[in-house]
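Example 3.2
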Amino acid sequence: MADQPLLLYSYFRSSCAYRVRIALNLKGIPYSLVPVHLLKEGGQQNSEKYALLNPSRQVPTLVDGNTIMGQSMAILEYLEEEFPNPPLLPRGHKERALVRQICEVVNSGIQPLQNLSITQFLEKDFGLSPEDRTRWLQHWIHNGLQALEDILNVSSGKYCVGDQITMADCFLVPQIFSSLRFKIDLSAYPRCAEINERCLKLTDFIRASPERQPDFEP
């Protein structure tokens, strides 16, 4: 365990930061949260001070002593190696690959296309209307959720991969949160919805939820 609490630079509504909060809670790792508002002051992530921590100017950023890193997938892998218990990756290499596949469907196939910086660019530089913005978001979210549903129909037990919580669940729950924000009907994705509901009954997921964060805004 670290000598001093880790620092997590986070925004309550960021699905990427939400993933890391879940993982930290599941592993019982003490941390202090540093809010970074993605809209105020032109986006606090765009400040030069923050860029020294995270050159990508995104959240989350994790600080563990002299170790500083961004990107939620890298952070979760770091936590898994630095704080191995309880594990969030299965022991079998095939199952571990499957967990990472599910994570990447969200991490690479859905979340970047719903990212605030992407939609702001489309609106500002390409004149995307609010209606077309909604169509854009919903198209890519539906596309990714269908892929997840198909995978989970084979891989899941109580959770995304079998009956143990893994990184895959840390990625699924925030994505469902974002999907609901963008008015996605989950009836076509019953397995995704069922696992999400099961996770959200657990204390570590509840504590990580956006409405429980100190920077939460209704």
